[in-house]
Design goal:
The chain is elongated and about 80 Å long. The strands form four sheets. A six-stranded mixed sheet has the order 4-3-2-1-5-6, with helices on both faces. Strands 7, 8, 9, 10 and 17 form a five-stranded mixed sheet that branches. A four-stranded antiparallel sheet has the order 11-12-15-16, covered by helices on one side. Helices cover about 35% and strands about 20% of the residues. The relative contact order is 0.11. The mean pLDDT is about 95. Strand 5, helix 4 and strand 6 form a beta-alpha-beta unit. By secondary structure, the chain is an alpha+beta fold. It contains nine helices and 17 strands. The chain folds into two domains: about 140 residues, Creatinase/prolidase N-terminal domain (Creatine Amidinohydrolase, Chain A, domain 1), CATH 3.40.350.10; about 250 residues, Creatine Amidinohydrolase, CATH 3.90.230.10.
Length: about 400
């Protein structure tokens, strides 16, 4: 899919920004590469720029060493020999522009957007330009899903749900046989099924028992893992996408108990967490019904407030959710007013996780994670069906 120059220029006009200056050096700005539709295998070892003015001709600016390597992009081509040439061409390109959007976030408030180094920002400012964040442009032209991507997400979702059910069943079968099994064993069991189902992921699933589940990013390894026994609390966090071009991720977390009777403490914390999850979804649906889109930080406040009101606020130690795209942690708006204050509105055709958690040190942690897709008409669709309503009861026998 080619770059939408007309759409970008219309958006620039709406935001009253004179132009979008896309810049990359050896992959330092993956957002720029995604926006222009960077072709795999293209060699670009030097700095390159792509200038999209609010109106008029777009221009690509890159080194004479690689004269044809951006020819897949529309617009005028300018080649530079020296750094002096490059700077002079930039000045000429933007001579009628004052406000320039780049992948920059003031004070690095949203690290996902801070892709252009400080020195390059200084260079552009030295040319008399005001640099503003491309945050809203990125959402519209990098983070929105196509219909094909949504379909691939649902296909990955179905495969992942089957694998998750199989993992809990495998734990039970091994314990009923009296077979020693560990977090690592089940993680690798799932990993093998990812491969068999045509799924890929940047990392292996999280399988965590008891106090290990109180560490949100715990991951078992061949050297460091715990045994899973009858009476244990188990958390499984799993994320993957189809092994296809432009596939997007699905990302879920479920929890269970190895036996028939989890403790009252397990049940209490689980109910608090799913209550926070459901409160966030209800808020999204309420706003969507009014054709309104909240800021990411507002949704975080809803789920965080629910947990805090029940006395567990200090144990909810991460944001409520993150954007999902080609990477599991995408570049669109996050559900966050803790780690950052994400001041971007959630927009149609984007997907994000809702995953509140309560983590009790030296005891256990509960997280319930679903994915939410906002449709074109602001309808809220929860993926990861069926949604977990009760702790999984793992049949371990008598």
């Amino acid at each position: 899919m080619g770059i939408d120059i007309a759409g970008i220029q219309a958006a620039l006009k709406g935001y009253k920004i004179d132009g979008w200056l896309l810049y990359d050096f050896q992959g330092s700005n993956p957002i720029a590469r995604k926006v222009v539709g960077f072709q795999e295998g293209t060699m670009l070892t030097r700095r390159w720029w792509y200038w999209i003015p609010q109106s008029g001709e777009v221009t690509r600016l890159h080194s004479v060493i690689e004269p044809t390597n951006l020819d897949f992009l529309p617009g005028k081509k300018i080649l530079f020999l020296s750094w002096r040439d490059m700077t002079e061409h930039l000045q000429e390109l933007m001579k009628n522009a004052t406000t320039i959007a780049m992948e920059y976030s003031p004070h690095c408030a949203i690290p996902y957007l801070s892709r252009v180094d400080a020195g390059t920002i200084e260079l552009v400012r030295s040319l008399g330009k005001k640099v503003v964040s491309s945050k809203d442009l990125v959402q519209f032209f990098e983070s929105r899903w196509t219909d094909e991507q949504l379909a691939m997400h649902h296909e990955a979702e179905r495969k992942l749900m089957t694998i998750k059910d199989g993992a809990f069943a495998e734990i039970g079968a091994r314990l009923r046989r009296g077979q020693r099994t560990t977090e690592y064993d089940i993680q690798q069991w799932m990993w093998e099924r990812f491969e068999a189902e045509g799924l890929t992921s940047y990392d292996e699933p999280i399988v965590a028992v008891n106090e290990n589940s109180a560490n949100p990013h715990y991951g078992p390894t061949g050297e460091k893992h715990a045994e899973i026994r009858k009476g244990d609390f188990v958390l499984i966090d799993y994320w993957a996408k189809l092994r296809r071009h432009d596939a997007v991720y699905a990302d879920y977390t479920w929890t269970g108990f190895c036996g028939r009777s989890p403790s009252e403490r397990h049940r209490e914390i689980f109910q608090v967490v799913i209550g926070a999850r459901d409160a966030a979804v209800a808020y999204l649906k309420e706003r969507g019904a009014k054709k309104e889109t909240p800021y990411g930080w507002e949704v975080d406040d809803v789920s965080r407030g629910y947990i805090a009101a029940r006395g567990f606020g200090k144990y909810f130690i991460h944001r409520t959710g993150h954007n999902i795209g080609l990477e599991v942690h995408g570049n669109g708006a996050h559900i966050d007013n803790l780690e950052t204050q994400d001041d971007r509105r959630l927009i149609p055709r984007t997907c994000f996780s809702i995953e509140p958690g309560v983590y009790l040190p030296k005891e256990f942690g509960v997280r319930s994670e679903i994915d939410v897709y906002m449709g074109e008409n602001f309808d809220i669709r929860v993926t990861g069906q069926p949604i977990q309503r009760e702790l999984v009861s793992v049949d371990v026998g008598s």
